[in-house]
Sequence to fold (888 residues):
Amino acid sequence: MGELPHVVIVGAGFGGIMAARGLKNAPVRVTVIDRTNHHLFQPLLYQVATAGLSPANIAAPIRDVLHKQRNAEVFLAEAAGVDTAGKLVHLREGASIPYDYLIIATGSRYNYFGHNGWEEDAPSLKSLSDGVSMRQEILLAFEAAEMEPDPARRKALLTFVLVGGGPTGVELAGSIAELAHRALKEDFRHFDPRSARIILIEAGPRILAAFPKELSNAAQKALERLGVEVRTDAMVQEVDDRGVSASGVRIDSRNVIWTAGVVATPVGKWLDVETDNIGRIPVNADLSVPGHPNILVLGDAARLEQDGKLLPGVCPVAMQQGRYAAALIRARAGEKGKEPGPFRYHDKGNVATVGRGFAIVDLGRLKLSGFVAWVAWIFIHIWYLIGFRNRISVMFQWAWAYITWQRAARLITGPIPGPRLFAKTVDSLADDRTSITTKTRKLP
Amino acid sequence: MGELPHVVIVGAGFGGIMAARGLKNAPVRVTVIDRTNHHLFQPLLYQVATAGLSPANIAAPIRDVLHKQRNAEVFLAEAAGVDTAGKLVHLREGASIPYDYLIIATGSRYNYFGHNGWEEDAPSLKSLSDGVSMRQEILLAFEAAEMEPDPARRKALLTFVLVGGGPTGVELAGSIAELAHRALKEDFRHFDPRSARIILIEAGPRILAAFPKELSNAAQKALERLGVEVRTDAMVQEVDDRGVSASGVRIDSRNVIWTAGVVATPVGKWLDVETDNIGRIPVNADLSVPGHPNILVLGDAARLEQDGKLLPGVCPVAMQQGRYAAALIRARAGEKGKEPGPFRYHDKGNVATVGRGFAIVDLGRLKLSGFVAWVAWIFIHIWYLIGFRNRISVMFQWAWAYITWQRAARLITGPIPGPRLFAKTVDSLADDRTSITTKTRKLP
Fold:
């Protein structure tokens, strides 16, 4: 009896976690490596960024997800490279972990299309820590506006620009509009939060381009009813700490958020293989890397065609690939049952939400928009949330927010007071020391 | 008709928030200044630090608490000084706010008794941001232990030392013991979390010295049943990044937490008045500062004797003083009804919790310890939580945690991976590159 084969999984997103769970009771040892301690339910991350849900509602500790799976261990560490000849994963922390099978499920990050300097002024939303700091920035913008005597600066603080009309941009736009126009409407004394502008910029001719045209039109109308300005065919030319320029129009804004396009993490370099222009590794039909049959790549890091079309970078693809990878390894590791055929993605449909009570659902033959679609969206999302506690807790917070229009998690927990936006108003207050006094006197 | 008098309240803790709410519909304008955006329910902060509750469960945005009170405004800002002659509060941000009445409710911070350098290696727990970073440090200690091959270093990572046997030290000790010995017990593969040591160090002869002796003894026994080592009559001599020395005994620990004694924030300097040795301002029987009848000081920042005894620095004192200050100002601002007499604190009793299902309650004649006291403690705490949503949500999370022994909020959301504890193990892993390999092979 030799030792059990060792499967190393890098990344505990949808693909990685499904692969790990799929190897439960398999004749292998499993090591999951992630640089965070939690599996994140990314489709609801925008709710954390807009104070609707708490971080704990949409994240489950990886250890907790796998704690009953005795053949699996978890390391909080960052993979830094792979030695394919020696079959080792190098960690940034200095150690190396040997593998017999390697599953790379490292996902993607946002693509600034060569303008990486824009990231500082237009952050994006991938990790829980991004969500918490975006929440802080959004809330601080309103706080700073309350103390800002200069109308132009106040207007810039109350202008939110979303770059990219995909699901994340649309969801954030709708959610910020609801926050400003409804949840916060009685909370300030020196301005009306309903005056906040929310602008969604899309380079293409319509938002939510992955959906049929009638559904994207319905979504755009719903966004506009919430008070969002939608600008299509608008190319961003410049981003700085005072705003954004798109197709020749300048918008002064202290809150530019980037949601346009993704690029895979640098796994191509690790394996020394060619990638496509957004960093994805072309894989064989069994998800293996050409020339490396024992290395599988899943999810946003993989490039795979099916019926002449590229598979999209969405959760269901990653989840189905994770399950497939586990089945493949079980068979190759000698478990009875035959090896699965080539991977095939089963597209069950596409959903996106626009705000309270409105979503669009595309199930192929069935296309829905409005409240019914939104209820469907809620149930689909809660169903997939890992962990029973989270399902109940999210449901409760949503129900409560729905009834009261409150935001449960409106907390600024970072350095006190939050650095970026607040600092920007300091000079204006110093310019005009009596301004607050004057304004205070205007209270009813 | 002149303008309404302006009441400025610095600090939105228990005293400040009660004063602000007490001035609802009074013939005054109210400005609340706080350097965070939330009122914090501090008695449950230890639950955030030990991953039992989420930050949003124990904090309410100050704006939300006061959003219906049209005579009140809120500034997220930090007070930096007071000009008593010009009747102005200076903000660190540069502006100044004029007042007719000033209420100082700035609370306290932990007292390192002259060893301020110890704070870096032995953090304390006052703000929500302290709670989140303490949670992160505690969770990272376990994560680092999983990858630490050296037994002595692993032991230091799994040793938690609480300095100070007051309520916070006792609550944290009990809660960390439950986390390690119960909630995490199946989550690691390279060590048994039940081997974690939790040590509570108290300089005096017994813990919870504010309680009668029989109750502190009961609490100590309950702690010991949870696996906490209690060391009384132990003076801390040295704290460094490798551990702590107390009464000649060295304890190697990467997790030293300071909960010993408090000192008032530097309000004495602002007003240029003498304070006592822990920074509190002696106040008159109407809470005013001698020589400054329009400045009131509340809560931990105030020093006041009643019946020959100093009032303790506890929430109920601050809350009652806040309500008193509001009543006094209402009368002085010309509202009908006579001015209240000197402030009197009504002591309703004292509670402290030791862990799941055990608390002590001292109501004077009635002394309780055990499960019934714990149920009483839960209801008292939830009753005082500001905001209906929080009451339900905390109750739900507690009920769930009680049934499942899970921790709802085991998230590391800071810089990835968390810097302090993790960095400390990097060198050891680098020393012995194959150690993880070896250990991994030992998996069942």
Observations:
- The mean pLDDT of chain B is 87.
- The longest strand of chain B covers residues 29-34.
